[in-house]
Amino acid sequence: MVACGDEAAGFEEVDDVGSVRVPSRPGKAEIDPLLGEHDHLIVSGTDADLAAVVLRLLRRDALSGVSVGFVPSSPDSVVGALWGLPKTPLRALALALRGEVDPVPLIRDDVGGVLVGRGQLRLVRGVAYADEQVALRGPASSIEVTPDPGGPGLAVRVVKGTIFKRPTTLYSRAFQIGCIPTRPVRDDVVYDRAVNKWTWYRHTEDLRLVRGAL
How many helices, marked H, and strands, marked E, lie in the chain? Predict the structure, then answer.
C-alpha cells in the first residue's frame, strides 16, 4: 500500500498489507520504483494523492497493467463519493485488497495533468464548450468537471450564480474554455498560474479502479 502524507491511515497492523509511506502527492522518485514490482497498488490518502500516483501510471504507460485500490483519508473524498467507496477506512481497505476491478473514465488536461475526482473553475468569464454544445457564454460562479461512467466520460456542471438560473449539467468527451485569466483547481489543488484557456478530456484508456463487490 502507498500511504501518502501524514494524514494517511496506518494499517501496519493488518497482516497482508505491506505499507510504503511517501510524501503527499508523491512523484517519480517515490512511485516509479514500485511500478515494476506490482500489478496492484493501494493508495491511502487524498484525492490529490491518488491523482499523483495515477499520473505516474500514465507517464509510465502502465494504466493497462496496474489496478488501483483507493482508501480515502477523508470521508469528504470526491473520488470516494463518485465511485461508491466505503467511508470507513478498514472497509475501504478490505475492498481495495479483495474487490473487483471496474474500469472508470480517466480525465486528462492539456498541461499534462490528470483529474480523478473534481475539477473546478471559479468566478470565471468566457466561452466554453462540452464537445459541440455551448456550456458557457459569459460569467459563471463556478464550473465543475467530474468523471462520469454513464456517458461519454465527463460531467460538466455550470453554476451561473443567480437564483433565477438553475445549474446546467452537460455530458461530453471533452470540455474546453477560453476565458479571462483564472486558476483551475484539480482535485482540490490550485494550479500554479493563471491561464486564459483550459481543456479537460477523457483519456483513451480507463483507470482500472477496484470498486466492485467483494
Answer: 4, 16
